[in-house]
Amino acid sequence: MEPRIKSPPSKLAKLKPAIAAVLPGGLPAAVARFYARSDGLKFSWAGEQAVLVGLAEMFGGLKRGAFRSHVVVKKADLDELDWPALPFYERFFNEHDDITDKKSLDRLNLRMRLKLLVSVAGESTELAIDYFDAKPTIYFVHRADAAYPLKDLEFGEFVAWFSRFGTRRWYFAFLDKKAEASLNIDLRAELERSLEDFPAEAWAPLLARMPKPKKKEPGPARAQVLAAASDQPVVHASFPPLNQPPEVLSEGNPRRVAFSPDGQRLVVWDANYELFVHDVGRRERLWKQKHAQAMDLSADGQTVAVLEHPRPYEHADRLVLRACATGKPLHRAPWKPGSQLTRLACVGCGRVVVADTADTLHVLDLATQRALKTVPGVKHVRRLGAVGDTARVLAHTQTYDEGSGMLTGPSAVKLLDLEAGAVVTSWAGATTFAASTDGTLVALGTPGERSVVRIVELESGRVVHELPGGATHPNEDPQYGFHLGFSPDGARLVVSERVYDAGSKTVTSTVSLYDAKQGTLVGRVDLGRNPERPRLTIDAEGLALSVDGVLCVAADAYGLRLWRV
């Protein structure tokens, strides 16, 4: 089956004056010849679609001010820019860049002057062109954070390859070793995997451009040891109280945190798929690793269970059990069931539960890594969590739409009995949960115009307390930033949420501490805004309370925040 190509009518004549205002010399000859025939291309093949954009979208749309000349930005200008009003904001660049020197400023200016060619559906990837350099160059833009030149790729050749393969990763053949190292992927393997549905002879010239394949199958990620573990106690008084600014341990993009039972170690997973373990008393990292898609800490705090992917952009395919103190794998080889793995939780009775994309839960023994049981038919698992020292697990289930990147359809939190392989009970509408360590209580968060948290007695199903939350922005996903966590003794519950104030039309992110037995508010803190970018709310992405009364909040891109409570 051959790809179908549609060529919209040319708009070059109509848009020439606007383009000339941006590019006094006009479009480069090869680009002008193409757009004189067609206003972009639409590629269709086997239900897959890709678009080489028309001239209006290339320059940022038809809205007023989109067709603008590039102005070189200086460091002093950064805080004065109206970032969201700039064409391709958050596609090629954003205001979160850490500009520390001329090189980083030059990289930002490059991305700010790029013009769009293609967006890759389902990925944070664009192909763009720089008209302002001495020679027009096509770039691969990754996560609005880095731009890599596609070397020796002329525009006419770009159109020809796009017409054959759309946005399959044929363009990886034009990236160099420096880009491969920065992206931390095997470019040849990615290209082969992406084009395997097409006849091999069609993409043989691309393969010929690339180094020979790497034959060795990647094993478990290597843990980098940074410091030796110690038994130094955590001094509770060394942390500020909740009503004072927190102690911040910078971590890049932390998303999930877990304390060991003794409160001495803190396990952190971040949005860059990295995992870190801290000695809390010494404020020091013990070890770190890459390629971690999900993690959980065993009830005794000795084992970190990690779902790892062999390469970036791939799903996790293995479970690795590591010593929390050293990062050393506890078994000779990882557990690999042959399916894609998505979520996990360390549960009671020394077990770990792993969900896969085939709607199956796998139950394994933590000590031996032996598979004990499978529970089929558990669909759309978004998160798993333990329920005390029992063979039960909590699961948040909801459909995820990969195209939009949004959760859709009805949401529920379910309590499953792993021995019976059955649902014990289900709470419709709930999207987040936390269970007390003894398994007697579960807190359930339900978003809406105003959020609500219910503390439920599991044995009877009785709602012990109902904690009203704040209002939600009408145009915002109410699940965003909504998280819960119990203290190890079950006496306290911490809740994070984004709260909308209709009067000022602003959103703030709050962390509230409750007495779980009484259902009363103990304290609340507004995480505030990034002092360097005051329009940005700092959101809580992960919560943990230690046994000795330390609260850790993973506050999106601004690090780990710790208080004593």
TrEMBL record:
<protein>
    <recommendedName>
        <fullName>WD40 repeat domain-containing protein</fullName>
    </recommendedName>
</protein>
<dbReference type="InterPro" id="IPR011044">
    <property type="entry name" value="Quino_amine_DH_bsu"/>
</dbReference>
<dbReference type="InterPro" id="IPR051200">
    <property type="entry name" value="Host-pathogen_enzymatic-act"/>
</dbReference>
<dbReference type="InterPro" id="IPR015943">
    <property type="entry name" value="WD40/YVTN_repeat-like_dom_sf"/>
</dbReference>
